[in-house]
Amino acid sequence: MPTGHIVHSFDNELNYLSQKIAEMGRHARNMAEQAVQAIITNDDKLADEVIAADHVLDEAEREIDEKAILIIARRQPMAVDLREIVGAIRISADLERIGDMGKNIAKRTAAIAQTHRPEMFYGSLEIFSSLALEQLSRVLEGYEKRSLKQINAVRERDDEIDAMYTSIFRELLTYMMEDPRNITPCTHLLFCAKNIERVGDHATNIAETAAYIMTGAYPVSDRPKGDRTYHLGTARAGKGRGGK
Predict the structure, then answer these.
(1) In angstroms, rounded to a whole number, what is the distance separating the alpha carbons of residues 209 and 146?
(2) Is residue 32 within 8 Å of 133, Cβ to Cβ?
(3) What pTM was computed for the model?
(4) What is the DSSP letter of 146?
(5) Are the C-beta atoms of residues 165 and 128 closer than 8 Å to each other?
(6) Which domain holds residue 176?
(7) With contact defined as beta carbons under 8 Å apart, do 115 and 181 qualify?
């Protein structure tokens, strides 16, 4: 939590931003988790609930933006206080985008349900979403506790999410090659997997912003961004990063 100030109302304002981020985080996580469950269980009603819930994050992001602007204008914060406020704006934007990812997944429920495939099609997707949502939960906990160690641990696991996405991409391609009837549902599932991968990216973005809040600097080492599935099926696929 933010350090104490002589003017207690300033503390209250900073605490409001932190609490609002926590609320957004829980809501965004629930949306993504329920969207995947809607896909797996063929639950159109749950999918509709996820889609309808997106406005909550939109409104929360606007509230944080407006509150942050008022705090900056009124308090003219410096150093860590200013980083707290700017960081809250950035984190709320990432959480709003995670909600959008959940909504995008939920929208595909009806299309996938028309050609519902065996459970093996969905097992990897469920495991993948659990990994990405675990990352999100850990980074939000690290932000709340101001634990740099926990924040850095989330950032270091970003490659694990990218690797699993590539594995799912390969798996779904295999299903499509085995039976043309799998093409439509697997194409939709590929889009779902990509949205889950983006949830992981946003969790890592939040980790970097949280590290900036606590230290005043972004992590020095660059992390790889984006998946490498564009290499699959090409001559470069087996040559790694140094291939030509």
Answers:
(1) 12
(2) yes
(3) 0.87
(4) T
(5) yes
(6) 8-227
(7) yes
